[in-house]
Amino acid sequence: MIKVLVLSQHAERYRELIEDVGLRGAELHYALDLEQALPVAAGCEVLFGAPDLLASALPHCPDLKWAQSSWAGITPLLEAERRDYLLTGVKGIFGAPMTEYVLGWLLALERQIPQRFAATSWDDSRDGHVAGKAIGIMGTGSIGAHLAQQCRQMGLSTRGLNSDGRPVDGFEQCWVTDQRLEFANGLDYLVALLPHTADTDGLVDAALLQQLAPGAIFINGGRGNAVDVDALLAALASGALRHAVLDVLPEEPLPDNDPLWSVTGLSITSHTAAPTPGRAIVEIFTENFRRYVEGQPLNYPIDFERGY
Amino acid sequence: MIKVLVLSQHAERYRELIEDVGLRGAELHYALDLEQALPVAAGCEVLFGAPDLLASALPHCPDLKWAQSSWAGITPLLEAERRDYLLTGVKGIFGAPMTEYVLGWLLALERQIPQRFAATSWDDSRDGHVAGKAIGIMGTGSIGAHLAQQCRQMGLSTRGLNSDGRPVDGFEQCWVTDQRLEFANGLDYLVALLPHTADTDGLVDAALLQQLAPGAIFINGGRGNAVDVDALLAALASGALRHAVLDVLPEEPLPDNDPLWSVTGLSITSHTAAPTPGRAIVEIFTENFRRYVEGQPLNYPIDFERGY
User: Fold this and answer.
1) C-alpha angle with apex B106: B100 to B111, nearest 5 degrees?
2) Does A268 touch chain B (CB under 8 A)?
3) Disulfide-capable partner of A113 in A72, A108, A266, B82 (CB 3.0 to 4.6 Å)?
4) Are A106 and A227 spatial neighbours (Cβ–Cβ below 8 Å)?
5) pLDDT tens per residue, chain B (308 residues)?
6) Cβ contact, residue pair B117, A116, below 8 Å
């Protein structure tokens, strides 16, 4: 039997989902936090759970061979010193919810939905529309490509930015990161869906924001490190940006007394853009466990150097 | 030369657009209202403009042979006694904006965008999603079909309701009006896109609303006559409906002191869902004028009996 530790604040939910499908060949242990994990950590060959908890457990799992993250954001594990194990992530389950999030916000802003939601008098001022607009998506992985394809269905033109400028389905054109100013030139909408790596730090800076069309909208559904917040606030204050929506921030949760909460034109959505669906995560883990037992290559391996 | 009267509060805008493309064989007159129209009405063979103004001009245009409406809603002309002329409407230009309107509202409500827009503290409560939900669309013409196709792209299941239950592309199944309760059974979202005819009066009534899934959302982007407002308010008050969005009402504009403005769970969008784009309307008119001159059948003829 392979000793497996499930370490997550959602461990009980994962227990139900794993027991539903069974996990042949596993001796399963569940822990809600590091304290519960310590007594069973020794001898664990497989970890499954939240990256921050897994990172804290790494020093106590000398026999670890494979860790399956239950989140897309794996920064705590990338920052840990230890790399003598196989790390796998989760992919392919965030495209649809992120697409609903981004399109929902773009349509809501164009249609004045926050204002019309509780309108108290007739207002037939003309609303905006997304068809015919140019959207630029930073990050052309499975999430960005899903969003781009849906945007094209709705009549937007789509540009992508990625590490090597490779073409990706759904994007009319892709630019390499070094050409990000050309990529951003004249965009009506800018969406960041970047992973947290050293290469993505501060990519959304004053120079980039100045390239956008007047009154553009910016949405960050990736990670907080990508945005120079001071530059963003300046662009909002000058009116260069009409609105910004931040799902992610360098510090989460953002404290109640943070001045960002009261910035006009800025909406903060508390890291809800693409929630992790438990069942889909467990399916990724159980399929990977089957592959692990059978000695096959696992799905969604993470390259510690690249960071994704 | 064929004497043409353009009668609309937007007559000056139409003048610019028509002069851009030219209108060979026409003697053009422009009027912003009936008073301006009267001196030139006699001898006019063709009318182009707003249905309410055209209806008021009908008695003054003895030589009228063809009227081109500049709006989708043609009720004033259907209600006028006179029917000895050809009436043509506008189609194919409302599908995209209506789709943006309906999807924008559904996504905004599922994503709590009105609440998150100006949030002042961290709230990572789980939002809803549209993928996997069942939407029922009353009216399967070009607008409804456009919406249905986009909904399927976003993972919704789609049902349609029309006068004869005929299958329509984009809809997984269509029901005939008489089977509207079966059509509505268990729907998460109900959208009315019906024209104003005697057959559509009060189709959205208590019996229909009771068929929906608990916490359903209703959107009326068609005409106000389709909705039994008392039944709608009861469904909102009981919580059977989570939210309703009305773009259209029996009386427009709705007066500021109308109690509908203060109903919890009801948003009123002031007939902005699918604004008429001037250039597209003028293209329909100029193409139809060319056909008229050449004796070809016109696009989008209205059947006075059916009402669309």
Assistant:
1) 115
2) yes
3) A108
4) no
5) 999 999 999 999 999 999 998 999 999 999 999 999 999 999 999 999 999 999 999 999 999 999 999 988 899 999 999 999 999 999 888 999 999 999 999 999 999 999 999 999 999 999 999 999 999 999 999 999 999 999 999 999 999 999 999 999 999 999 999 999 999 999 999 999 999 999 999 999 999 999 999 999 999 999 999 999 999 999 999 999 999 999 999 999 999 999 999 999 999 999 999 987 888 899 999 999 999 999 999 999 999 998 88
6) no
For chain B positions 238-267, those within 8 Å of chain A (CB to CB) are 252-254, 256, 261-262, 267
* A272 interaction partners in chain B (CB closer than 8 Å): 116, 123-127
Backbone angles phi, psi at A65, to 5 degrees: -120, -30
CB contact under 8 A, A154 and B154: no
DSSP A204: B
Pull the structure tokens for residue B42. 């006699």
Q: Is residue B53 part of a domain?
A: yes
Taking the CA of residue A123 and the nearest CA in chain B, the distance in Å comes to 6
Tell which residue, A206, A192, A194, A203, has the closest CA to residue A241: A206
Nearest residue of chain B to residue A106 (CA atoms):
B104
User: Is A205 found in the same domain as A159?
Assistant: yes
Tell me, yes or no, whether A107 and A185 share the same domain: yes
User: What is the domain extent for residue B191?
Assistant: 95-268
Mutation pick from A102, A106, A110, A121 vs chain B, by most beta carbons of B within 10 Å, is A121
Task: Note whether residue A140 is domain-resident.
Answer: yes
Distance from the Cα of residue B176 to its chain's centroid: 20
The continuous run of DSSP H or E covering B241 comes out as strand B241-246
Of B100, B120, B153, the CB nearest to A129: B100
The model's pTM is 0.85
SS (H, E, C) A271-305: CCCCCCCHHHHHHHHHHHHHHHHHCCCCCCECCCC
Q: Which residues of B touch A102 (CB under 8 A)?
A: none
